[in-house]
Amino acid sequence: MICESAEKTLKAGEQLGKTLSSGDVVALSGPLGAGKTVFARGIAESIGIQEPVTSPTYTLISEYEGRMPLYHMDLYRLGSPEEFTWLGVEEILNGSGITLIEWSERAGEELPERTITVNIEIADNGNRIITISNSREVAA
Ligand SMILES: Nc1ncnc2c1ncn2[C@@H]1O[C@H](COP(=O)(O)OP(=O)(O)O)[C@@H](O)[C@H]1O
Ligand SMILES: [Mg+2]
After folding, report:
1. Residue 36: nearest ligand to its CA?
2. Strands (E), the chain
3. Ligand number with the minimum distance to the CA of 12
4. Looking at ligand 1, which residue's alpha carbon is closest to its atom 8?
5. Which pairs with CB-CB distance under 8 Å and at least 24 residues apart come from 49-56?
6. 28 and 118 Cβ atoms separated by less than 8 Å
7. pLDDT in tens, the chain (140 residues)
8. pTM above the 0.85 mark?
9. Is 126 in the pocket of ligand 1 (CB under 6 A)?
10. How far apart are CA 33 and CA 49, in angstroms?
């Protein structure tokens, strides 16, 4: 789908968020400034999180409490996919919350099979092209 404004990116996140349930993992990829955090905010809003959501670039992971727990990771500073497993995130990925992973490309092959992937590209005119795969019928 094409999003012409940050507001539309947020809405796209909300839309996907509504389809998510306990245990889902959403991988967000795309360049710096693509809109991954905006999209993550949309998801957070849809599950009832009121707190401001920001990229956990230095902390690697933030936890929020909505209708279910939301774990928000940012792997920008991850050195290698192996490091992802060393973080001990297995428990989180297999827990009852929803996990969002920015810079998911840094985790290589270490993400669960069931991961829903969201790729955000920046078009020449600044629009964002968002491709969601593996999701349950998200209306475009
Ligand atoms: N569809 C869009 N069109 C224009 N700007 C957008 C769009 N989506 C997001 N943005 C803007 O892009 C900037 C970076 O967003 P952010 O979510 O922080 O990126 P990332 O987390 O991918 O680095 C923000 O200023 C945001 O408002
Ligand atoms: Mg970000």
Report:
1. 1
2. 2-3, 25-29, 61-65, 69-74, 98-102, 116-122, 128-133
3. 1
4. 6
5. 55/102
6. yes
7. 999 999 999 999 999 999 999 999 999 999 999 999 999 999 999 999 999 999 887 778 999 999 999 999 999 999 898 988 888 888 999 999 999 999 999 998 889 999 999 999 999 999 999 999 975 545 44
8. yes
9. yes
10. 23
